Amino acid sequence: MGGLTLGVFAVILLGASATLITKFGPPAIFEVFAAVTAVAAAIATFFFPSASISEDLVRDAAGFTRPVWFIITGIVLMSLVQAMIFSFLQPMGTDRGLSPVQIQSVLVTLGLVAMTPTLLAAFLQKRLPPMRVAMTGTLLQGAVAVLISCSSGFLPYAVGAVVFPFIMLFTHTFVFGHLARLDLTGRAVAATPAMLVGNMIGPLLGGTLVQTTGYLGLGSAAAAVDLIALCCFIAASQRATSAIQPLPQLNQ
């Protein structure tokens, strides 16, 4: 349900933001972000849920195991690639001569497609091995990043842009479920915001690459980062089999 809610919100945000930017100029996007963040802060302040796990688990908790660290590193790298490419999705379309209507249609379609990956992942969670999904996801993310960065026509740009966030959302749903089984204390899953630090670094790194090497360099760097993430997931899968345990029960 969380993924579906995010998808619906993305459609509304992308559609409304494009209209506001056209009417009031680029600075309007920052006002939109400020308003959304203020609402999110208010909700988190007054309605944040509370839950605790067994005190024995907390007392006996040691540091993260190597498989957990490998998975966390892989997630950070995938989020870095996501931000590197997604931050320049609109500029890439504009620089290739696409009209604002074409770009906006791609963004709205992207938001609609973003509703589906978490629901599909929930349906397939017991049918697909999570680390295989993670490894496949990194390869697909790198390939689509190169497609978006190097394509010159509307069709490959549009297909790549629509598929790109689907890959990340579908993959990390499986990965976080796997993390929950590897780390019984729940600390790894709770550290999700820290894992998405790549989202903060990505725009800066992507901008530097675009200025120095162009969009081709951006796509090549994204593919290289995804290969490192793939190595992390391979290392985690080789070490994690014996570490998987049943999920703990939450104390209500």
Q: Could you describe the 3D structure shown?
A:
This protein has helices at residues 2-24, 28-47, 55-59, 66-86, 89-95, 100-113, 117-124, 130-150, 154-182, 187-190, 192-195, 198-240. It is mostly helical and 252 residues long. It folds into two domains: 1-51, no CATH class; 54-243, MFS general substrate transporter like domains (Growth Hormone, Chain: A, Up-down Bundle), CATH 1.20.1250.20. α4 (66-86) runs antiparallel to α9. The longest helix is centred in the last third of the chain and has 43 residues, at 198-240.
Query: What is the helical fraction, as a range of percent?
Result: over 70%
Shape: globular
* CATH architectural category of the largest domain: Up-down Bundle
Q: How would a crystallographer describe the biggest sheet?
A: none
Count structural domains.
2
Low-pLDDT segments, ≥5 res: 242-247
**What is the string of helix and strand elements?**
HHHHHHHHHHHH
Strand segment tally: 0
Let me know the average pLDDT. Answer: 80
Question: Count of DSSP helices?
Answer: 12
| Structural class by SSE content | mainly alpha
CATH topology of the largest domain: Growth Hormone, Chain: A
- Give the end-to-end Cα distance, rounded to a whole number of Å: 21 Å
What is the CATH first-level class name of the largest domain? Mainly Alpha
* Cα Rg: 19 Å
**CATH fourth-tier homologous superfamily of the largest domain:** MFS general substrate transporter like domains
Give the percentage of residues in beta strands: under 5%
